[in-house]
Structure formats: C-alpha cells, structure tokens
Structure prediction request, 459 residues.
Amino acid sequence: MAKMWAGVTAGITDSIADDFNSSIRFDSKMYRQDITGSMAHAAMLGERGIITKDEADKLIDGLEGILRDIDSGALQFDMKAEDIHMFVEQVLTERLGDLGKKLHTARSRNDQVALDLRMYLRDGIDGITSLVRELVSVVTDKAEEYRDAIMPGYTHLQRAQPITFGHHLMAYAMMLLRDLGRLSDCRARMNVSPIGCCALAGTTYDTDRYFEAEKLGFDSIAMNSIDGVSDRDFCLELASALSILMMHLSRFSEEIILWSSWEFRFVKLSDSYTTGSSIMPQKKNPDMAELVRGKTGRVYGDLMALLTALKGLPLAYNKDMQEDKESIFDALETAEMCLRVFIPMIDTMTAMRENMLRAAQKGFINATDLADYLVKHGLPFRSAYKISGQLVAKCIAEDRVLEELTLEEYKEMSELFEEDLYNEIDLLTCVEKRISEGGTSVASVEKQIAYVREVLAND
Prediction:
C-alpha cells in the first residue's frame, strides 16, 4: 500500500523497512494528546480562515468520534500504520473523505510529534508529582509517629551519634521535596508549544500559534522554529529528574533492606510488601525494596540512551529522534510503578523501637557525653576521655551498656560521678541537647515536619 506521504517517491517500502520504521507500537500511547492537539489545530485553521468554520467543526467532530471509539475499544490501532499521527489522519480521511486531508494543513509531523510528546510528558509529570507528594506526606506522618524513637545515626555504616528515627526519615522527606522542585522546573520549561514550527522553517499560511498554545494549556510558544522541532531537552531534563528521584528511592530502599534484616531488626515490613523463599520457610524477603533499588539502574540507562541518541544530531529533525519515546516512556512508567508500591510499603512499615534503642546503647554513642560530664565537673578532657574509654571497654567485656553500670562502678573510676550522670548519658537527653536548627531533638523534628507540611499545603 502506498503511504500518505507518497510524492517524489512511490511511497512503497519493503515490509521489513516498514516494521523497522514504524513507531505506532509505542507512540500510540500518545493518541489522546495527538487527537487533542489536532482538534486545536483544526480550530485554529477555522479561526484564521485557512479552512471554513464549518470544515473545522466537522474535523473536530470527526476527531472526537475517533477519540471516543479508541477509548471504548470500538477502534483498534492498526499496527501496520507508520505512527499514531498517520493512523489518526487515515481513519479521519476514511470517515470524512477529502476533508480529512485538510487537517494537516500548516503543520508537519515534526512539530506534531514534538507537541504530542510535550503534552504526554506534561501529563506524566503531573502524575509523578502527585505520587511524590503522597510519598512525602506518608514519610512525614511516619516521622511524626517516631519523632522520639531513639536509633543510632551512622557514618561509614558505623554507629556514630544518637538520633531519632523521625529525624532520619525527615532527611528523605527533604530529598523528595527537592524532587518536587525539579519536576516543577522541568514542567515549566516543557510547557512551550512547538506546533506551527512545521517541518523546521515555519509556514506560509497566516497561522496563530498563540491560539493553539493557549487552547492546549501551554504558557508560551517556541520562539525559533528549528529549535521547536529539534529540541528534546525536556526529555533529558525529565529523565534526569526521574533518575535523581529513583536514586533517592534506591537509597531509602537500601536502608529498608538493611533495617529489616535480622542483623538490624529496626523495622518490620508488612507481609503485603515482602515475599517468602521457595525452600527456606523462615525467610521474609524485602523484594519490593530490592526491585526499586534494581530498577533505578534501568532509569539511569534510559537517561544515557537519550543523551547518546541526541549527542551528534545536526539540526533540525532526524529519524534518530524517534528513539526518544521508548526511553522516556520507560523512565516515566518505571518511576511511577516504583512509587505506587513504595508509598504503601512505607505507610505500613513498623519501627521496632526497643531494637533501635538497644543498638544505640550498644554502640556507646553516648561515650562523648559521659566524658563531657566529667569535664563539666572540672576534670581535664584528656583524663575524662581516658576514663570514658575504660568504662566502654568494661561494658564491652561484660556485654553491658553504660546505662547499666552502677554508681559504685562509676565511682571506682572517679569520685566526680554522681546520680545525675544517668540523666546526662540517657540517649533521649543526648538527642534533646542537639538544639541547633535542623538537628535531631524532638522539637527540631517537629519543626521540620511542620515545615514540610506547610510546603505541601502552599504548593
């Protein structure tokens, strides 16, 4: 069958070439955006008198009918069609005759696909943004629940200082807020209409690009027609934002995997988000978190594929740019899938307070506070440091923690110790003494929670 673009060529290609060239198997995802964009284009043609108002109305009615039929399943995609644009135009022409052929006046598939892609990804960003906001809310609620649960804070994966679980969770809330900011910035730069740029040089028709842009919800139009059809920065920027988001989810997943292990036993995941072993009945595997961690590399790969496809392209449009969709669609869908399972996994996660507290105590992360106690009572720091270290060694040898030593045992090391030392080395006291902005005290965590909720409310 000859193609609709037959002209200087016969429009007849080899079947293998047809299949290789076709993009409808993946760009059919954009059917709604393609049809919506065509409706706006038809309306503009009618407004400018390029076609009659009656013709524009009939085109719009025909397009609405195609949209309804695809949505209902009455119309199936023809996988032999070259792309979604040609499929819609072909069906429209079958239904309206020669009038359907007038729809493509004053545009090219180059600006049409750029339009469809921006609209599709704009919708995708809105969906991802909604999910990230929900995750931030869930993480913040969980942080509030455990704002006073003591756990060891780590550097180099070694117990370092006492913090609260709420404080630790709020670190992820802050990361996710930045993800929201990146998605918002990306959407703003994406929301520029390329329609009317045509193949690359614009058109001789007296079109109104602002009319179409406004009708389709764009903030502005591409100011250079060559850039309008060849720009895919918005795909790269979105893939980058999604990669950073996935990196945050992966870091969170790594900690959940560690925390839920028997070596840590800091958290317990719901059975709904874990799996068992086919031969080991005692196993409860954090497979959802592991898959999120694994799928992060997939999104990174999508970003690299896009960068590589675009890096050597001369202006303006090249067929290489057909490769943009599969990568960015995959990145978007992978991130969405991960968020949809991650949100309820965190929401149903339970922290094991006693295990966290015991781990903090066994880490002797209050040893510095013990030394500071002696310094406050007049002992030189180096002497206090040595006594504190000797007491820690005693605890290790006897499998005890500093809080369990008797006052008599403390006085054997220094007569400066009194009953009030137990309050000074209590881990909650150690945490509450961290009064600086952004610190781990309960009051500080509550302030962080209030800040995040205010950002969400005002965004």
